[in-house]
């Protein structure tokens, strides 16, 4: 099993251990990919942040307590990248079903196109003969994690050297990353493919790969041109993020935990609600189940009177809600968790809370990251973080 943090206690311990190097050291060394078991220049907090076992506010506050703002700027802006992708996708929700359709279409092509099927199978098995690519696939399979810089190279080689559809690559990593995140994953793949910023794709370079991996690799035959397409750059116009359906403040409530937010005891909007029961949905991944169990145990400690119903099938959730409770859950951004909630039986009294981090930052994520970046000092000040 992974050594990535999947409980809140592990996430807090990982944060405490990482904080001393989150300042200028991180700014200088974060792009070095030293290989499995040696990723000491990055936090490896993403599996916990993605599930909000620990929040962006908590991570940034801990880092700023050791490294006042300019020193920690690089690390903090990376944390904002996560929010940026979420907010950007939230205002273009149609890109997610478009992506799912494209994965299905590319999957169907694998059935009929033998050459594509063979190249795809070799890539997925890490048997392309490109040393770094094959090693990263092995690392991903055995640890569920890749360094950010390695993710960029893997995606670039997949698209431009191996000539495989980016959507199949995104599906490949989404199924394997322990931090799998629909926004960061899909949109990073689009960014590498040249579909996020006009005229800009990310092309790997053998010399840079050798330098950034401490000479571990000397890849041969990498593409020297990034040919964008056949899809052309069509970025949908942003629309306002969907508004949450808020819970009634005094109604008996069933707290439904999803992998989108697993530290409910820290959510101000939940503190005064009469929470009578708590549950999650069944059928989650093994990593999500560990994190959900940890969250349910903490929620039970916070609301000891509430009945813990464990993992419920959708039909059982409907039954639980017939006990008169409104269901309260974290706002699920575009992605699989939102799809699961949408597929629940109609008419469930489902209500949502939106973290004020998202409410504050998402509206600033409509354009490029650098438009958001300008606002980071003001956002931190407004939140009392700097
Ligand atoms: C092709 C590709 C696919 C990706 N897929 C995912 C994914 O499915 N899930 C996921 O969580 N991240 C994804 N990322 C973003 C990034 O690679 C990971 O968040 C990061 O590598 C996690 O490692 P860390 O926690 O050690 O990061 P650190 O370097 O320690 O960064 C601290 C935190 O900042 C955030 N962060 C850092 N870099 C990025 C980034 N480029 N984009 C968004 N957030 C970032 C993460 O929350 C991370 O935990 C992807 C990047 C690429 C290029």
UniProtKB/TrEMBL annotation:
<protein>
    <submittedName>
        <fullName>Deoxyribodipyrimidine photolyase</fullName>
    </submittedName>
</protein>
<feature type="binding site">
    <location>
        <position position="75"/>
    </location>
    <ligand>
        <name>FAD</name>
    </ligand>
</feature>
<feature type="binding site">
    <location>
        <position position="26"/>
    </location>
    <ligand>
        <name>FAD</name>
    </ligand>
</feature>
<feature type="domain" description="Cryptochrome/DNA photolyase FAD-binding">
    <location>
        <begin position="75"/>
        <end position="202"/>
    </location>
</feature>
<dbReference type="InterPro" id="IPR005101">
    <property type="entry name" value="Cryptochr/Photolyase_FAD-bd"/>
</dbReference>
<keyword id="KW-0285">Flavoprotein</keyword>
<keyword id="KW-0274">FAD</keyword>
<dbReference type="GO" id="GO:0003677">
    <property type="term" value="F:DNA binding"/>
</dbReference>
<dbReference type="Pfam" id="PF03441">
    <property type="entry name" value="FAD_binding_7"/>
</dbReference>
<dbReference type="GO" id="GO:0071949">
    <property type="term" value="F:FAD binding"/>
</dbReference>
<dbReference type="InterPro" id="IPR002081">
    <property type="entry name" value="Cryptochrome/DNA_photolyase_1"/>
</dbReference>
<dbReference type="GO" id="GO:0003904">
    <property type="term" value="F:deoxyribodipyrimidine photo-lyase activity"/>
</dbReference>
<dbReference type="InterPro" id="IPR036134">
    <property type="entry name" value="Crypto/Photolyase_FAD-like_sf"/>
</dbReference>
<keyword id="KW-0456">Lyase</keyword>
<feature type="binding site">
    <location>
        <begin position="179"/>
        <end position="181"/>
    </location>
    <ligand>
        <name>FAD</name>
    </ligand>
</feature>
<dbReference type="GO" id="GO:0009416">
    <property type="term" value="P:response to light stimulus"/>
</dbReference>
């Amino acid at each position: 099993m992974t050594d990535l943090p999947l409980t809140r206690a592990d996430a807090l311990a990982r944060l405490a251990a990482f904080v001393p190097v989150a300042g200028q050291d991180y700014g200088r060394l974060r792009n070095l990919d030293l290989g499995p078991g040696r990723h000491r220049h990055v936090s490896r907090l993403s599996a916990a942040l993605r599930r909000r076992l620990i929040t962006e506010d908590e991570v940034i506050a801990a880092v700023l307590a050791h490294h006042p703002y300019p020193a920690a700027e690089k690390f903090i802006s990376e944390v904002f990248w996560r929010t940026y992708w979420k907010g950007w996708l939230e205002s273009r929700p149609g890109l997610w079903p478009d992506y799912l359709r494209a994965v299905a279409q590319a999957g169907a092509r694998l059935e009929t196109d033998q050459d594509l099927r063979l190249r795809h199978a070799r890539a997925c098995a890490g048997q392309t003969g490109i040393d770094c690519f094959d090693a990263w696939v092995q690392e991903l399979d055995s640890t569920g994690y890749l360094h950010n810089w390695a993710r960029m190279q893997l995606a670039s080689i997949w698209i431009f050297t191996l000539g495989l559809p980016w959507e199949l690559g995104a599906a490949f990593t989404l199924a394997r990353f322990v931090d799998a995140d629909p926004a960061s994953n899909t949109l990073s793949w689009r960014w590498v493919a040249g579909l996020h910023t006009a005229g800009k794709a990310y092309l790997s370079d053998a010399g840079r790969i050798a330098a950034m991996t401490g000479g571990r690799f000397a890849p041969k035959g990498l593409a020297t041109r990034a040919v964008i397409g056949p899809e052309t750059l069509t970025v949908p116009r942003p629309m306002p993020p969907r508004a949450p359906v808020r819970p009634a403040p005094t109604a008996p409530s069933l707290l439904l935990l999803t992998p989108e937010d697993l530290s409910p005891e820290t959510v101000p909007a939940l503190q005064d609600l009469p929470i009578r029961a708590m549950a999650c949905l069944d059928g989650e991944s093994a990593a999500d189940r560990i994190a959900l169990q940890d969250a349910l145990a903490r929620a039970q400690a916070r609301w000891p009177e509430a009945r813990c119903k464990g993992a419920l099938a959708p039909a059982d959730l409907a039954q639980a809600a017939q006990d008169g409770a409104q269901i309260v859950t974290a706002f699920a951004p575009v992605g699989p968790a939102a799809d699961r909630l949408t597929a629940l039986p109609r008419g469930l009294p489902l209500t949502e809370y939106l973290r004020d981090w998202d409410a504050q930052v998402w509206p600033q994520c409509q354009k490029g990251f650098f438009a958001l970046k300008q606002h980071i000092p003001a956002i931190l000040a407004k939140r009392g973080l700097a």
